[in-house]
User: Which sequence fits this backbone?
């Protein structure tokens, strides 16, 4: 598994309305959208009327997928030289 520096970046885009990575405002739904990127795929975490709920979902996903990254990371003894 190879990640780019942007894939797991905790820094929000400079145009972000929430100020947090993985949480954005959806104008059409008038809700906060939480998402995370894992193994090259965007994972939708939900739509929330309150920013704090979207941030909570994102934080829980970071904990879960962070643990999953550790499980999926090949150990040195299994990599080819």
Assistant:
């Amino acid at each position: 598994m190879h990640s780019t520096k942007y894939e797991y970046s905790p820094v929000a885009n400079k145009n972000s309305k929430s100020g947090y990575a993985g949480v954005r405002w959806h104008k059409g739904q008038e809700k906060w959208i939480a998402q995370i990127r894992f193994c090259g795929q965007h994972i939708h975490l939900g739509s929330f009327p309150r920013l704090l709920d979207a941030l909570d979902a994102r934080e829980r996903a970071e904990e879960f997928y962070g643990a999953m990254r550790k499980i999926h990371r090949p150990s040195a003894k299994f990599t080819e030289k």
In short: Residues 1-9 have pLDDT under 50 and may be disordered. Residues 64 and 70 are 10 Å apart (CA to CA). The beta strands are 23-26, 31-38, 41-48. The chain is about 25% helix and 25% strand.
